[in-house]
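Below is a typical protein record.
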Amino acid sequence: MATIEACDFFPYTVLSRSQWKSLRKASSLPINEQELEQLVGLNEPITLNEVADIYVPLAELLHVHATAYQRLQQQKRGFFHHGKNRSPFIIGLAGSVAVGKSTTARLLQKLLKAWPEHHHVDLVTTDGFLYPNETLEARGLMDKKGFPESYDLPALIRFLSDVKAGEPYVKAPVYSHLTYNIVEGDYQVVHEPDIVIVEGINVLQVNKRNHHIPNVFVSDFFDFSIYVDAKEEQILQWYIERFKLLQNTAFQDPNSYFHRFRHLSEVEAEQFATSIWKNINGVNLHENILPTRHRADLVLQKGPQHFVDEVKLRNI
Protein backbone atom coordinates (compact mmCIF):
# COMPACT_ATOMS: atom_id res chain seq x y z
CA MET A 1 0.00 0.00 0.00
CA ALA A 2 1.39 3.40 -0.97
CA THR A 3 2.21 5.82 1.80
CA ILE A 4 0.11 8.97 1.77
CA GLU A 5 2.04 12.10 2.70
CA ALA A 6 0.33 15.10 4.31
CA CYS A 7 1.44 17.29 1.43
CA ASP A 8 -0.61 15.10 -0.96
CA PHE A 9 -3.76 16.73 0.42
CA PHE A 10 -2.56 20.29 -0.20
CA PRO A 11 -1.89 21.19 -3.86
CA TYR A 12 0.85 23.73 -4.47
CA THR A 13 1.64 26.02 -7.33
CA VAL A 14 5.38 25.69 -7.89
CA LEU A 15 7.10 28.71 -9.37
CA SER A 16 10.66 28.68 -10.65
CA ARG A 17 12.99 31.48 -9.65
CA SER A 18 12.48 33.22 -12.99
CA GLN A 19 8.68 32.87 -12.79
CA TRP A 20 8.62 34.27 -9.26
CA LYS A 21 10.98 37.11 -10.18
CA SER A 22 8.67 38.12 -13.04
CA LEU A 23 5.86 38.84 -10.55
CA ARG A 24 7.71 41.80 -9.04
CA LYS A 25 5.90 45.10 -9.49
CA ALA A 26 8.27 47.59 -7.83
CA SER A 27 10.82 49.36 -10.03
CA SER A 28 13.06 50.40 -7.14
CA LEU A 29 14.34 48.81 -3.93
CA PRO A 30 13.43 50.27 -0.49
CA ILE A 31 16.79 49.05 0.82
CA ASN A 32 20.44 49.77 0.06
CA GLU A 33 23.63 47.76 0.39
CA GLN A 34 24.52 49.14 3.81
CA GLU A 35 21.07 48.41 5.23
CA LEU A 36 21.19 44.90 3.79
CA GLU A 37 24.51 44.18 5.51
CA GLN A 38 22.92 45.04 8.86
CA LEU A 39 20.03 42.63 8.27
CA VAL A 40 21.72 39.47 7.02
CA GLY A 41 23.01 36.82 9.41
CA LEU A 42 26.41 35.16 9.58
CA ASN A 43 27.38 33.21 6.48
CA GLU A 44 24.37 34.37 4.48
CA PRO A 45 25.69 36.11 1.36
CA ILE A 46 22.34 37.54 0.30
CA THR A 47 22.68 40.18 -2.41
CA LEU A 48 20.49 43.08 -3.47
CA ASN A 49 19.65 41.03 -6.57
CA GLU A 50 18.36 38.25 -4.32
CA VAL A 51 16.27 40.79 -2.42
CA ALA A 52 14.86 42.17 -5.67
CA ASP A 53 14.16 38.76 -7.22
CA ILE A 54 12.76 36.91 -4.20
CA TYR A 55 11.95 39.03 -1.20
CA VAL A 56 10.39 42.05 -2.90
CA PRO A 57 7.76 39.91 -4.70
CA LEU A 58 7.11 38.10 -1.41
CA ALA A 59 6.66 41.41 0.41
CA GLU A 60 4.32 42.56 -2.36
CA LEU A 61 2.22 39.41 -1.96
CA LEU A 62 2.10 39.90 1.80
CA HIS A 63 1.11 43.53 1.23
CA VAL A 64 -1.85 42.34 -0.85
CA HIS A 65 -2.94 39.98 1.93
CA ALA A 66 -2.38 42.50 4.72
CA THR A 67 -4.22 45.28 2.89
CA ALA A 68 -7.21 43.01 2.19
CA TYR A 69 -7.20 41.90 5.83
CA GLN A 70 -7.12 45.49 7.09
CA ARG A 71 -9.97 46.44 4.75
CA LEU A 72 -12.04 43.52 6.00
CA GLN A 73 -11.38 44.47 9.62
CA GLN A 74 -12.48 48.04 8.92
CA GLN A 75 -15.67 46.85 7.23
CA LYS A 76 -16.46 44.51 10.13
CA ARG A 77 -16.06 47.37 12.61
CA GLY A 78 -18.49 49.40 10.52
CA PHE A 79 -20.94 46.51 10.27
CA PHE A 80 -21.02 46.00 14.04
CA HIS A 81 -20.96 49.76 14.79
CA HIS A 82 -18.10 49.67 17.26
CA GLY A 83 -14.57 51.00 17.47
CA LYS A 84 -12.89 47.77 18.50
CA ASN A 85 -9.10 47.85 18.68
CA ARG A 86 -7.42 47.03 15.40
CA SER A 87 -6.36 43.42 15.00
CA PRO A 88 -2.93 43.14 13.36
CA PHE A 89 -2.09 40.93 10.40
CA ILE A 90 0.16 38.14 11.74
CA ILE A 91 2.76 36.30 9.66
CA GLY A 92 4.29 33.05 10.88
CA LEU A 93 7.79 32.14 9.71
CA ALA A 94 9.11 28.61 10.29
CA GLY A 95 12.02 26.40 9.26
CA SER A 96 15.09 24.63 10.55
CA VAL A 97 17.91 25.98 12.66
CA ALA A 98 20.51 27.69 10.41
CA VAL A 99 18.25 27.84 7.35
CA GLY A 100 18.04 31.65 7.42
CA LYS A 101 14.68 32.34 9.07
CA SER A 102 15.91 35.33 11.05
CA THR A 103 17.36 37.05 8.00
CA THR A 104 14.16 36.39 6.06
CA ALA A 105 12.10 37.85 8.91
CA ARG A 106 14.26 40.98 9.18
CA LEU A 107 14.17 41.52 5.41
CA LEU A 108 10.39 41.20 5.30
CA GLN A 109 10.02 43.57 8.23
CA LYS A 110 12.15 46.15 6.44
CA LEU A 111 10.36 45.75 3.10
CA LEU A 112 6.82 45.75 4.51
CA LYS A 113 7.45 48.99 6.37
CA ALA A 114 7.79 50.75 3.01
CA TRP A 115 4.01 50.81 2.57
CA PRO A 116 2.24 53.64 4.45
CA GLU A 117 -0.80 51.41 5.00
CA HIS A 118 1.19 49.28 7.45
CA HIS A 119 4.43 51.02 8.35
CA HIS A 120 4.35 49.68 11.94
CA VAL A 121 5.73 46.14 11.59
CA ASP A 122 6.94 44.25 14.67
CA LEU A 123 9.15 41.16 14.67
CA VAL A 124 8.91 38.67 17.54
CA THR A 125 10.97 35.49 17.84
CA THR A 126 9.69 32.50 19.78
CA ASP A 127 13.13 32.10 21.42
CA GLY A 128 11.84 34.42 24.12
CA PHE A 129 9.27 31.79 25.07
CA LEU A 130 11.83 29.09 25.76
CA TYR A 131 11.90 28.09 29.38
CA PRO A 132 14.91 29.55 31.27
CA ASN A 133 17.95 27.28 31.40
CA GLU A 134 17.37 26.69 35.09
CA THR A 135 13.94 25.24 34.32
CA LEU A 136 15.25 23.18 31.42
CA GLU A 137 18.05 21.77 33.57
CA ALA A 138 15.63 20.88 36.38
CA ARG A 139 13.45 19.04 33.88
CA GLY A 140 16.36 17.35 32.10
CA LEU A 141 15.60 19.20 28.86
CA MET A 142 18.82 21.09 28.09
CA ASP A 143 19.56 18.61 25.29
CA LYS A 144 16.03 19.16 24.03
CA LYS A 145 16.28 22.92 23.72
CA GLY A 146 14.21 23.92 20.70
CA PHE A 147 11.98 20.85 20.92
CA PRO A 148 8.27 21.55 21.59
CA GLU A 149 8.55 20.61 25.27
CA SER A 150 11.23 23.27 25.87
CA TYR A 151 8.82 26.14 25.16
CA ASP A 152 6.29 27.79 27.44
CA LEU A 153 3.55 27.29 24.88
CA PRO A 154 0.73 28.57 27.11
CA ALA A 155 2.61 31.87 27.49
CA LEU A 156 3.23 32.09 23.73
CA ILE A 157 -0.42 31.39 22.96
CA ARG A 158 -1.55 33.98 25.53
CA PHE A 159 0.80 36.52 23.96
CA LEU A 160 -0.55 35.88 20.45
CA SER A 161 -4.13 35.94 21.69
CA ASP A 162 -3.62 39.36 23.29
CA VAL A 163 -1.87 40.70 20.18
CA LYS A 164 -4.60 39.40 17.88
CA ALA A 165 -7.28 40.84 20.16
CA GLY A 166 -5.77 44.28 19.65
CA GLU A 167 -4.53 44.79 23.19
CA PRO A 168 -2.53 48.06 23.10
CA TYR A 169 0.53 46.87 25.05
CA VAL A 170 1.63 43.23 24.99
CA LYS A 171 4.97 42.04 26.40
CA ALA A 172 7.17 39.22 25.09
CA PRO A 173 10.20 37.85 26.98
CA VAL A 174 13.64 38.48 25.49
CA TYR A 175 16.21 35.78 24.72
CA SER A 176 19.98 36.31 24.52
CA HIS A 177 21.91 34.19 22.04
CA LEU A 178 25.08 35.31 23.80
CA THR A 179 24.17 33.89 27.21
CA TYR A 180 21.93 31.22 25.65
CA ASN A 181 19.19 32.09 28.11
CA ILE A 182 16.16 34.26 28.80
CA VAL A 183 17.08 37.80 29.91
CA GLU A 184 15.43 38.15 33.29
CA GLY A 185 13.29 41.27 33.64
CA ASP A 186 13.69 42.31 29.98
CA TYR A 187 10.72 42.42 27.61
CA GLN A 188 9.84 43.43 24.09
CA VAL A 189 6.67 45.53 24.04
CA VAL A 190 4.35 45.16 21.07
CA HIS A 191 2.31 48.35 20.79
CA GLU A 192 -0.57 48.53 18.31
CA PRO A 193 1.25 47.13 15.25
CA ASP A 194 -0.20 46.87 11.77
CA ILE A 195 1.71 43.65 11.08
CA VAL A 196 3.50 41.20 13.39
CA ILE A 197 6.05 38.68 12.10
CA VAL A 198 6.42 35.69 14.43
CA GLU A 199 9.61 33.78 13.67
CA GLY A 200 10.65 30.44 15.14
CA ILE A 201 11.29 26.78 14.44
CA ASN A 202 8.18 25.75 16.36
CA VAL A 203 5.49 28.08 15.04
CA LEU A 204 3.71 25.57 12.80
CA GLN A 205 3.80 22.68 15.26
CA VAL A 206 0.75 21.31 17.06
CA ASN A 207 0.37 20.59 20.76
CA LYS A 208 -0.11 16.84 20.44
CA ARG A 209 2.45 16.03 23.16
CA ASN A 210 1.24 18.37 25.85
CA HIS A 211 -2.10 17.55 27.45
CA HIS A 212 -1.93 20.62 29.71
CA ILE A 213 -2.42 23.00 26.79
CA PRO A 214 -5.88 23.65 25.32
CA ASN A 215 -6.52 22.47 21.77
CA VAL A 216 -5.23 25.78 20.43
CA PHE A 217 -2.19 26.03 18.18
CA VAL A 218 0.26 28.90 17.66
CA SER A 219 -0.60 28.86 13.95
CA ASP A 220 -4.29 29.49 14.72
CA PHE A 221 -3.35 33.16 15.09
CA PHE A 222 -1.55 33.42 11.72
CA ASP A 223 -3.04 35.09 8.68
CA PHE A 224 -0.19 33.90 6.46
CA SER A 225 2.61 31.42 7.08
CA ILE A 226 5.99 30.83 5.43
CA TYR A 227 8.36 27.88 5.66
CA VAL A 228 12.02 28.39 4.71
CA ASP A 229 13.36 25.10 3.35
CA ALA A 230 16.58 23.55 2.03
CA LYS A 231 18.16 20.13 1.72
CA GLU A 232 19.41 18.88 5.06
CA GLU A 233 22.99 18.45 3.87
CA GLN A 234 23.04 22.13 2.92
CA ILE A 235 21.56 23.23 6.24
CA LEU A 236 24.14 21.11 8.10
CA GLN A 237 26.95 22.73 6.14
CA TRP A 238 25.57 26.20 6.92
CA TYR A 239 25.31 25.23 10.59
CA ILE A 240 28.94 24.08 10.70
CA GLU A 241 30.16 27.21 8.91
CA ARG A 242 28.18 29.42 11.28
CA PHE A 243 29.61 27.61 14.32
CA LYS A 244 33.15 28.24 13.06
CA LEU A 245 32.43 31.91 12.46
CA LEU A 246 30.96 32.28 15.95
CA GLN A 247 34.17 30.82 17.39
CA ASN A 248 36.02 33.90 16.22
CA THR A 249 33.31 36.38 17.18
CA ALA A 250 30.62 35.79 19.82
CA PHE A 251 32.37 32.84 21.49
CA GLN A 252 35.34 35.10 22.30
CA ASP A 253 33.17 37.06 24.73
CA PRO A 254 33.65 35.72 28.30
CA ASN A 255 29.89 36.13 28.82
CA SER A 256 29.12 33.75 25.99
CA TYR A 257 27.58 30.43 26.98
CA PHE A 258 29.86 28.82 24.37
CA HIS A 259 33.03 30.65 25.46
CA ARG A 260 34.63 27.32 26.39
CA PHE A 261 34.54 26.21 22.73
CA ARG A 262 36.48 29.18 21.37
CA HIS A 263 39.81 27.32 21.13
CA LEU A 264 38.60 24.21 19.34
CA SER A 265 40.63 23.40 16.25
CA GLU A 266 38.90 23.55 12.88
CA VAL A 267 38.55 19.77 12.81
CA GLU A 268 37.29 19.65 16.41
CA ALA A 269 34.81 22.44 15.73
CA GLU A 270 33.41 20.63 12.69
CA GLN A 271 33.14 17.36 14.62
CA PHE A 272 31.44 19.08 17.57
CA ALA A 273 28.95 21.00 15.40
CA THR A 274 28.15 17.85 13.42
CA SER A 275 27.54 15.96 16.66
CA ILE A 276 25.12 18.64 17.90
CA TRP A 277 23.30 18.46 14.61
CA LYS A 278 23.01 14.69 14.52
CA ASN A 279 21.94 14.36 18.16
CA ILE A 280 19.76 17.45 18.61
CA ASN A 281 19.00 19.78 15.69
CA GLY A 282 18.70 17.10 13.03
CA VAL A 283 16.44 15.01 15.26
CA ASN A 284 14.25 18.03 15.95
CA LEU A 285 14.09 18.81 12.24
CA HIS A 286 12.83 15.35 11.31
CA GLU A 287 10.54 14.79 14.29
CA ASN A 288 8.99 18.21 14.79
CA ILE A 289 9.84 20.83 12.16
CA LEU A 290 9.86 19.20 8.72
CA PRO A 291 6.49 17.47 9.29
CA THR A 292 4.90 20.93 9.60
CA ARG A 293 6.11 22.19 6.22
CA HIS A 294 2.83 21.29 4.49
CA ARG A 295 0.96 23.60 6.86
CA ALA A 296 2.67 26.70 5.45
CA ASP A 297 0.94 28.92 2.89
CA LEU A 298 4.24 29.46 1.09
CA VAL A 299 7.55 27.59 0.97
CA LEU A 300 10.84 29.25 0.04
CA GLN A 301 13.04 26.47 -1.35
CA LYS A 302 16.71 27.41 -1.02
CA GLY A 303 19.64 26.07 -2.95
CA PRO A 304 23.37 26.62 -2.35
CA GLN A 305 24.53 29.99 -0.95
CA HIS A 306 21.08 30.65 0.55
CA PHE A 307 19.68 31.63 -2.85
CA VAL A 308 16.05 30.64 -3.43
CA ASP A 309 15.55 28.24 -6.36
CA GLU A 310 11.76 28.01 -6.33
CA VAL A 311 8.68 29.17 -4.46
CA LYS A 312 5.74 26.90 -3.61
CA LEU A 313 2.39 28.54 -2.95
CA ARG A 314 -0.34 26.44 -1.37
CA ASN A 315 -3.58 26.61 -3.32
CA ILE A 316 -5.95 25.91 -0.39
